[in-house]
Amino acid sequence: MADRRKRATIREVAQATGLSPAAVSYALRGIQTSEETQERVRAAAEELGYEAHPIARALASGRTGMVGLLCGSLEDYWQQSLAVGIGRALLARDRYALLVDAGGDPERERALARRLRDQRVDGIIVQPLDPAADLWADLCDALPVVSIGDALRGGHAQGEVVFDNRRGVTLALEHLLDRGHRHIGVLTPTRASTPDRPADVHVHAEAERLGLRVDVEVAPQSLAGATAAARALLDRADRPSAVFCFSDVIAYGVYAATRDLGLAVPGDVAVCGYDAHPMSALLTPPLTTVDWDIDGIVHAAVRLVVDVIDGKPRRRRVVREPSLRSRASTVG
């Protein structure tokens, strides 16, 4: 016969732990109690079979348990991996990700950000396409927002996980220069609406410092779009001898373009990526890329947004340091 025992109540958990119902409620939500108390209460709740009713919990706390995850473009494989990691990390913290995809369109990004706010998510994690948009100031006043990759205009975000792009660009360009490349193509997803993104600015500054010629072109974070952009870059009479891509999926497009044009990697053109997707090590030849430690990014972003939601913000800004994974796409 099916087990029809009545659901355990919060009062029964309180009796088992010797705490008040209010203290048990706080502990189960991870607020206003020590970690030791929270662990003790959760263990008792699990033993008794206590489960908080989600609607009742939302009404009592004013929270939905949902965190909006606004991705710039899920055609980018690295962002897919980031979304998977954040979704799982939020679930481990008893939250749920509401995932939306801006599809590389800043207007769509703004519309989706407003929709997430209107759906009363507890907070938003965003990898912004347009960090300079006026929207962010109003949104950050309405709910907790944590940005990944770029700081939002005005410094209004309650948390940010940013990249040391100057160091990342320097690692890539110095690596290519050390291998004899002085004319480098750069493929970036940056649009005309965001010409001052840090990584792109650093390319010009570092190229001048190192005495490099760089051709900077826009390429979407999709395999087909990146292939077309790379083909146009490499089909010139004066093509660059190396291509530095601000996304590994853009670098995959360069590989496809070299096959279309009958060029060899790295014999005719060296290729360097920027986010160390696991697939990059499986290419032929394996792709040199800049690694930002995606697991560390996930941990930092989720910790920041949950801490702000729970009213215990700590370190507001986390800067990720890169490392270069040198592989055969630049070392012939």
What do you see in this structure?
There is one protein chain. The protein is α/β, with parallel strands linked by helices. The chain folds into three domains: 10-61, 434 Repressor (Amino-terminal Domain) (Orthogonal Bundle); 66-163 and 293-321, Rossmann fold, CATH 3.40.50; 165-292, Response regulator (Rossmann fold, 3-Layer(aba) Sandwich), CATH 3.40.50.2300. It is built from twelve helices and twelve strands. The chain has helices at residues 10-17, 21-29, 35-48, 54-61, 77-92, 106-118, 135-142, 165-178, 198-210, 223-234, 248-261, 294-309; strands at residues 66-71, 96-101, 123-126, 145-149, 159-163, 183-188, 213-218, 242-245, 270-272, 289-291, 317-320, 323-325. The protein has a six-stranded parallel sheet with strand order 2-1-3-4-5-11, with helices on both faces. The chain has a four-stranded parallel sheet with strand order 7-6-8-9, with helices on both faces. Helix 1 packs across helix 3 and helix 5 crosses helix 12 (294-309). It is elongated, with a radius of gyration of 24 Å.
